[in-house]
């Protein structure tokens, strides 16, 4: 029996490197009994596997590692192991997976690095465990339920969203996103982008005679503030079902400027064209993007008679009554199930609408409160049918009060009282407020 | 090996030194028995209970392994030598080189031979 004490002293300087590299499947785990080695790595870490440092074999001969299914007594690894190691190491250059037996495939998948380029792995690997490791490696918090329970889908959706969020028009190469499309088109179902960066603003060149007031600056910069145009992206994703966009900039810190948040006319046109062309889109949300009436109408016009759209969310924008009218038209021309126009300017600035019928809708408590807020400034609404709309009793009562005030004012203004309906009431499900 | 004047033991008999591996297309490879026993499959074929014809003639027929990839057979033989050389040895064990183009086939063969 050779004396390993002296040799172990020689091995020490190299051991710290050995213990971190020592992750091959033939039992290269560090021992917890040896004080010089770093902490034992019990969980198999997906790293490049290679044969352990040859001089570590002496220590390996004297170790027993409990519950390590890959530890074996043999010092010389089996040829199957050697081949698998080789395949794992060279996977990038030579991706062999499907031709192997299932147990070998499983071993290779368990040890593949999550950093492999997507061009190699995207269409080859369907194993959810591998994509789970990739997701965990990249993002600390992962809610796979938001992505339909599929780790592969989650990885591609988040990766794409990340690229879109950091895309700077004019600076970033659009090929970065377009190259990803053929790899991810089968897996991405939902795109949720809550930040669109504007192009980098060069210092404005003042034309002679220009004052630097906000009007002229707005005109000069308007053509250059367009964000990433989504036409190619949406056309390239053949299974896209949900598009959730916010034209917003996060983390601007001290660089806050209002013109960072412009959803430009050109953006709007290209977005409208993109969603019109996308025949698999079921849910479309464009919120918090300062969408005004004109832009809303452009978008709504492109959604008329859309074959599959079911949910449209334009809440927290600046849509007024013209936009709302467009939305109402949309309701009758499409298969829309859910329309959300919350927190817009619909009722506040309205001066022509006299009758709204929102009965038998599930407006709910919040909707009721918002309707009430809109009603507080409204002076022309006379009829507001909210039957079976689940609006809270207090909201109904207050809306009723506002209506009554409007009706009174109208009656006072009228030259001919017969113009106005005399039995106008806002009826709640239980009580009628006169 | 060709230039040396050596006489080799035969392949017949229970204490033969060499064993003949016959692949599916008829090619025969003669390997030292001790090294061929690295492979669990070969070992089972040669030392199993009585009825195998292989046991008498020390020949092993492999119907599934073709030899059209000669480098694969060469790699297998190299592996046998590598294994025998370094098992129970205290010297440094170098890495066994695997050529990338034969990796998959070698894996299949190794899986079959259980080595």
TrEMBL record, chain B:
<comment type="pathway">
    <text>Protein modification; protein ubiquitination.</text>
</comment>
<keyword id="KW-0832">Ubl conjugation</keyword>
<dbReference type="GO" id="GO:0000151">
    <property type="term" value="C:ubiquitin ligase complex"/>
</dbReference>
<dbReference type="InterPro" id="IPR001232">
    <property type="entry name" value="SKP1-like"/>
</dbReference>
<dbReference type="InterPro" id="IPR039948">
    <property type="entry name" value="ELC1"/>
</dbReference>
<keyword id="KW-0805">Transcription regulation</keyword>
<dbReference type="GO" id="GO:0005737">
    <property type="term" value="C:cytoplasm"/>
</dbReference>
<comment type="subunit">
    <text>Heterotrimer of an A (ELOA, ELOA2 or ELOA3P), ELOB and ELOC subunit. The elongin BC complex interacts with EPOP; leading to recruit the elongin BC complex to Polycomb group (PcG) target genes, thereby restricting excessive activity of the PRC2/EED-EZH2 complex.</text>
</comment>
<dbReference type="Pfam" id="PF03931">
    <property type="entry name" value="Skp1_POZ"/>
</dbReference>
<keyword id="KW-0833">Ubl conjugation pathway</keyword>
<dbReference type="GO" id="GO:0030674">
    <property type="term" value="F:protein-macromolecule adaptor activity"/>
</dbReference>
<dbReference type="InterPro" id="IPR011333">
    <property type="entry name" value="SKP1/BTB/POZ_sf"/>
</dbReference>
<comment type="function">
    <text>SIII, also known as elongin, is a general transcription elongation factor that increases the RNA polymerase II transcription elongation past template-encoded arresting sites. Subunit A is transcriptionally active and its transcription activity is strongly enhanced by binding to the dimeric complex of the SIII regulatory subunits B and C (elongin BC complex).</text>
</comment>
<dbReference type="InterPro" id="IPR016073">
    <property type="entry name" value="Skp1_comp_POZ"/>
</dbReference>
<dbReference type="GO" id="GO:0070449">
    <property type="term" value="C:elongin complex"/>
</dbReference>
<keyword id="KW-0804">Transcription</keyword>
<feature type="domain" description="SKP1 component POZ">
    <location>
        <begin position="19"/>
        <end position="78"/>
    </location>
</feature>
<dbReference type="GO" id="GO:0006511">
    <property type="term" value="P:ubiquitin-dependent protein catabolic process"/>
</dbReference>
<keyword id="KW-0539">Nucleus</keyword>
<protein>
    <recommendedName>
        <fullName>Elongin-C</fullName>
    </recommendedName>
</protein>
<comment type="similarity">
    <text>Belongs to the SKP1 family.</text>
</comment>
């Amino acid at each position: 029996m050779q004396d390993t004490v002296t040799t172990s002293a020689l091995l020490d300087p190299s051991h710290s490197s050995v213990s971190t590299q020592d992750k091959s499947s033939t039992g290269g785990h560090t021992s917890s009994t040896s004080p010089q080695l770093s902490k034992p790595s019990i969980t198999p870490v997906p790293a490049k596997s290679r044969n352990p440092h040859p001089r570590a074999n002496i220590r390996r001969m004297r170790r027993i590692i409990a519950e390590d299914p890959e530890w074996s007594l043999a010092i010389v690894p089996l040829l199957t192991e050697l081949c698998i190691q080789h395949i794992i190491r060279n996977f990038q250059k030579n991706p062999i997976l499907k031709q192997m037996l299932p147990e070998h495939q499983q071993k290779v998948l368990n040890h593949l690095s999550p950093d492999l380029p997507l061009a190699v792995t995207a269409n080859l690997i369907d194993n959810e465990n591998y994509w789970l490791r990739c997701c965990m490696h990249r993002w600390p918090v992962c809610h796979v339920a938001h992505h339909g329970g599929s780790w592969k889908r989650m990885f591609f959706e988040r990766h794409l969203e990340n690229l879109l969020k950091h895309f700077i028009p004019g600076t970033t190469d659009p090929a970065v996103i377009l190259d990803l499309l053929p790899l991810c088109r089968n897996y991405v179902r939902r795109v949720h982008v809550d930040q669109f960066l504007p192009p980098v603003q060069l210092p404005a060149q003042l034309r002679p005679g220009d004052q630097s007031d906000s009007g002229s600056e707005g005109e000069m910069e308007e053509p250059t503030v367009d964000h990433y145009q989504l036409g190619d992206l949406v056309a390239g994703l053949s299974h896209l079902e949900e598009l959730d966009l916010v034209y917003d900039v996060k983390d601007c810190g001290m660089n806050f400027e209002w013109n960072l948040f412009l959803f430009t006319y050109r953006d709007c046109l290209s977005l409208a064209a993109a969603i019109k062309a996308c025949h698999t889109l079921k849910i479309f949300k464009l919120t918090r993007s300062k969408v005004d009436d004109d832009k809303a109408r452009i978008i709504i016009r492109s959604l008329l008679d859309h074959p599959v759209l079911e949910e449209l969310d334009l809440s927290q924008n600046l849509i007024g009554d013209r936009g709302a009218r467009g939305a109402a038209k949309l309701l009758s021309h499409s298969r829309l199930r859910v329309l959300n126009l919350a927190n817009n300017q619909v009722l506040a600035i309205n001066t022509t609408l006299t009758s709204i019928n929102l009965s038998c809708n599930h407006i709910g408590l919040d909707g009721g409160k918002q309707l009430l807020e809109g009603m507080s400034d409204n002076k022309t609404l006379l009829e507001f049918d909210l039957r079976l709309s689940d609006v809270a009793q207090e909201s109904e009562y207050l809306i009723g009060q506002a209506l009554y005030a409007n009706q009174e004012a109208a009656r006072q203004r009228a030259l001919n009282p017969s113009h106005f309906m005399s039995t106008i009431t806002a009826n709640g499900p239980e009580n009628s407020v006169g | 090996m060709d230039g040396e004047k050596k006489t080799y033991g035969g392949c017949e008999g229970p204490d033969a030194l060499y064993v003949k591996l016959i692949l599916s297309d008829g090619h025969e490879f003669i390997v030292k028995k001790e090294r061929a026993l690295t492979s669990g499959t070969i070992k089972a074929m040669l030392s199993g209970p009585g009825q195998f014809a292989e046991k008498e003639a020390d020949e092993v027929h492999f119907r599934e392994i073709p030899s059209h990839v000669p480098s694969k057979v060469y790699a297998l033989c190299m592996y046998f030598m590598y294994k025998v050389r370094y098992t129970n040895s205290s010297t440094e064990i170098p890495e066994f080189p695997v050529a990338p183009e034969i990796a998959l086939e070698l894996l299949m063969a190794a899986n079959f031979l259980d080595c």
